[in-house]
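Lab meeting, action items carried over

1. Structure of the three-component assembly. Owner: GW. Status: complete.
Input record:
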Amino acid sequence: MAEAGTAVKTPHAHDTHHEQSFVSKYIFSTDHKIIGMQYMFTGIVMALIGGYMSYAFRMQLAFPGQSVPGYGVVSQGEYNALVTNHGTIMIFWVAMPMLIAAFGNYLIPLMIGADDMVFPRINRLSYQIFLISALILIASFFVPGGGFGGAWTAYPPLSANAQYNLTPLGATFWLVAVALEFVAFLLGGINFITTLMNSRAPGMKMHDIPMVLWFIVIASVLFMASVGPLIAGAVMLFMDQVIGTGFFDPDRGGDPILWQHLFWFFGHPEVYVVLLPAMGIVAEIICTFSRKKLFNYKLILYTAFATGIISFFVWAHHQFVAGIDPRMANVFTITTLIISIPIAEMLFLYIATLYGGSIRLTTPMLWALSFIAEFLIGGITGIFLGASGSDIYFHDTYFVLAHFHYTFFPIAIIGFFAGITYWFPKIFGKMMNERLGKIHFWGTIISFNLIFIPLFILGAAGQHRRIYNFQNFPDLAGLQDLRVLATSALLVMLVFQAVFLFNFVTSLIKGKPAGKNPWKANTLEWTAESPPPHGNWPELPNCYRGPYEYSVPGRDEDYWPQDVPPDTAPAE
Amino acid sequence: MSMTKPIATTRSATGIPTGKLAVWWVIGSEIVIFGGLLASYILHRIGHPEWAEYASHTNTWFGAANTFVLLTSSLFAVLAHHAAEHGDGKKAAKWLLGTCGGGLLFLCIKAVEWTGEIQHGYTITANGFWQFYYTAAGLHALHVIAGCIIMLIIANEARKNVELHRVELIGIYWHFVDIVWIFLFPLLYIAK
Amino acid sequence: MAEHQSHADDHGQAHYVKIWAVLLVLLILSVLGPIVAPHVAFGFLKAWMITLMTAFGIAVVKAYLVAANFMHLNVEKKYISYLLATMLTLMLLFFAGTAPDVMEHKGQNWENVAAKAEVDQALESQNEAKAHGGDHGEAHH
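Predicted assembly:
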């Protein structure tokens, strides 16, 4: 490693003499910050599309058969396509790009004191492939037959046979879009891993790395190690759809259960792929706004590694009632219950971090705290599903749906809002409006709970997933009030997102200038200009301490940035 | 847009240079892709005893010839790396062309083999064995093609003594493609 | 000096050529395996077991030789070997978790009727073909 104290000058700082065109600066950029923003804005657009889909199908559920304003009447086939693509979009084109690609791209070089990712052109290529995958998915809605309606899990034979799914073009477009998205994230993941290992500031040891970066890189590793079998499965499913092979057809020597195993071998680590970055973002925020060190950094890190490893051993809990061997179900129940322990432990460590801290309830802090509370509910309800006995009742009911929204919503939505409200000043150089931020927060959180608590109740009452009209079920028809409540809460939540968009745009235009370090945080990104120029710093910083040296006894300031040399007093 | 390479790439946690680290991670993810496909094949092959008869119609001599071609091309690839290590870009480029030639020969042999098999009615939709046969070998062949293309680009730079370290990197990828075939050969041609 | 250089070069190159020669020998052995196996089978060591051992055992050895010598894993940092070993272990894990459902066609309280029917029907038609096609059956492997 280079000696601490030898500052490295970046050549980019002297590039002011040639102006770049808009196209080369913003469209074909290789700058990690621009690419991060490209991912983020694509993710926001896809989130609006996915949210619109949930609006349409929830309106159908609450007011069956009636024309949905802004959509029309939802037919059975369209209902299937809406729920399928809502799930697919939210996981692959919202959660992953916003949490991993956007924040990962933006933060990794800045937080380790580097000028860019190690492979900037591959970085650009990965975004381009990602964008193409998003366009292919959107195109699938407009082909004859419409979008794929076989659920985001795409089980064959429904997903393999056009005579069953009635959307042959849509099914293939969907599959190709998902496969391309995987390729984009494989490329991106390699960039993240190698950059973190090989580009750190002089003096930054492994345990001086901010936790969010560790979590993003561990997530990338988990993704790379788990997606392979599903890519193989996607190739096989593609062949079944397009060429007419029988990989998943038992009459031709195949097995539909094979697809399920291939899918969930990836699908379970995937939820930790999205969870870890969100938890990382929360870790950064709670330290900054409680002015406290992260409680037991090494334990949290090793726990994250352990969680990642165990996540490969639990996948068939998604298949308890699919006809897997009961002896395997026993094995997977045990491993699934075991994995709840390290996650719970990490949440306890976060609470220990907050304990005794000087809490500032800024908007990012509110989001971070709500993540802990809501994810706790999601995690606890998972235990009923991880135990195969109770899962026999709960599988495929709305209980599952409410469980995974109580996990995915904190991950994708709360995690995103926490991150964007925290780093907006750095990314755009302006402060967001705190009052609007808090209004948006409370409006979103309260309505979120009012959507999904009714769904727990409905699930426990036996309401099945992927049904287009519950009036056809005499035992369930009477619970319509709960469905209307959930849909009404969704409408309220969607309206409140306008507050965020308004805040975002007006802050960009006339927000208060942020300065370099408005939150008085320690990590290296806060030592760059807001927004950082190309190359990030005129001279790359060195690192002298860990990232969470807050409230260190005997010092004037309650924070101690990583790049301040030890002998001198910190600059204001 | 200044395409200057990022400069903060000189530290290394593991002591492994950045490009090589990245290629090994690519290999890692390819292991699970081919691993998933081949594991699926093995599961079915063991569970379906009737596939033994289907598999008996593959031509071991074609398979062995292709194995010989790929092993030799791997030798050329490592000799290219050896030359690059000693700074001889021209020689490295020549060996890389030889490797690429091996890849093309592999593809030609495969084309002849598959033409014969398809004419005999052993198509991809014939039965479970053949669908795996064409899919696995086909995915492998796609990797051979991609490898050849990248290799030509790197050879072109190497003969001007530019970016010589990349000779090793494409070599690592090529050896991996060779190893996949080392396992495909017994799986598809010998286990009958 | 150039002579010394090329001498050292040749030494380096000779090593790789040696490995290649060993690989070719192994290839020949793996092709001979199924031909020779029926003649050396005895007792519980059946012909197909010998074939599989030669075929896959040799494949593992060949892969090791290529990985260690051509990919230079024998001198590379251990980190890479751990990474590769982890990926391979995950594949074994996937196989172990999926085999009871996909490789086996029956288990505790369940039976894969469709698969069983397909296998039975295919074996039956193969036996028929063998019985009727003895005149013009081919002897190729």
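2. GW to write a short summary for the group page. Key points so far: The interface with chain A takes residues 1-4, 6-14, 16-18, 21-22, 25-26, 28-37, 39-40, 43-44, 48, 51, 124-125, 127-129, 131, 135, 139 of chain B (CB under 8 Å). Chain B has six helices and no strands.
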